[in-house]
């Protein structure tokens, strides 16, 4: 909770930061935010490289007796079950983010708490399936560290399905909460 709160403050003070490509895509499909297809084409590789750098830094700096405890998300079920799990988990977290930040409480502290609780709940629920990630950049970082970053399984489970879940969440959010119709002045 404290880390999410701290990263939010730091990110906002720097003009906004995005740690999860699926969130960026969801807000893009809703027409919120300033990202374009070109900015996302630059942002997503930067997020993946940043995640790989972060995973390598963690692996390098962590006390050796605790190294066995890190590793990032990994498939614990068959490929298609894992893919379905990441799609559903990413759909749920993305829909929760959209509801919390666009329709939720006004208090930033309450928004961050709701986001943290949603994330922890989904991580616990998905831990028997995929780790879970719900964030392609994060999954790539750990996969790179473990030399699993260039496999079809990693791309399918941790990139294609989370993006699909995020886009579906944005579409369903828009269907439930359509944007207000602008009245033309006569």
Automatic annotation (TrEMBL):
MF annotations from Gene Ontology: water channel activity
Topology relative to the membrane: Multi-pass membrane protein
Record InterPro entries: Aquaporin-like, MIP, SIP1-1/2-like
UniProt feature coiled coil, ranges: none
This protein's record includes keyword Calcium: no
Stretch forming the signal peptide: none
Pfam families membership: MIP (PF00230)
Protein's cellular compartments: Membrane
A Gene Ontology cellular-component term: endoplasmic reticulum
Spans traversing the lipid bilayer: 6-30, 42-62, 82-102, 109-129, 156-177
Keywords assigned by UniProt, alphabetized: Membrane, Repeat, Transmembrane, Transmembrane helix, Transport
Record has Signal as a keyword: no
Similarity field: Belongs to the MIP/aquaporin (TC 1.A.8) family. SIP (TC 1.A.8.10) subfamily.
Function description: Water channel required to facilitate the transport of water across cell membrane.
Name of the protein this chain belongs to: Aquaporin SIP1-2
Taxonomic source organism: Trifolium repens (Creeping white clover)
């Amino acid at each position: 909770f404290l880390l999410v709160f701290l990263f939010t403050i730091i990110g906002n003070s720097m003009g906004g930061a995005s740690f999860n490509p699926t969130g960026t895509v969801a807000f893009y499909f809703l027409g919120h935010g300033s990202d374009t297809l070109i900015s996302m084409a630059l942002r997503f590789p930067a997020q993946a490289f940043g995640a790989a750098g972060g995973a390598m830094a963690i692996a390098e700096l962590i006390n050796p007796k605790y190294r066995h405890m890190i590793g990032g998300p990994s498939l614990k079920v068959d490929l298609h079950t894992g893919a379905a799990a990441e799609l559903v988990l990413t759909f749920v977290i993305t829909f929760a983010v959209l509801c919390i930040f666009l329709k939720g409480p006004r208090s930033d502290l309450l928004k961050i708490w709701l986001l943290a609780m949603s994330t922890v709940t989904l991580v616990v629920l998905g831990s028997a399936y995929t780790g879970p990630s719900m964030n392609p950049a994060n999954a790539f970082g750990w996969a790179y560290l473990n030399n699993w970053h260039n496999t079809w399984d990693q791309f399918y489970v941790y990139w294609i399905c989370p993006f699909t879940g995020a886009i579906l969440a944005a579409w369903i959010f828009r269907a439930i909460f359509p944007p207000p119709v602008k009245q033309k002045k006569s």
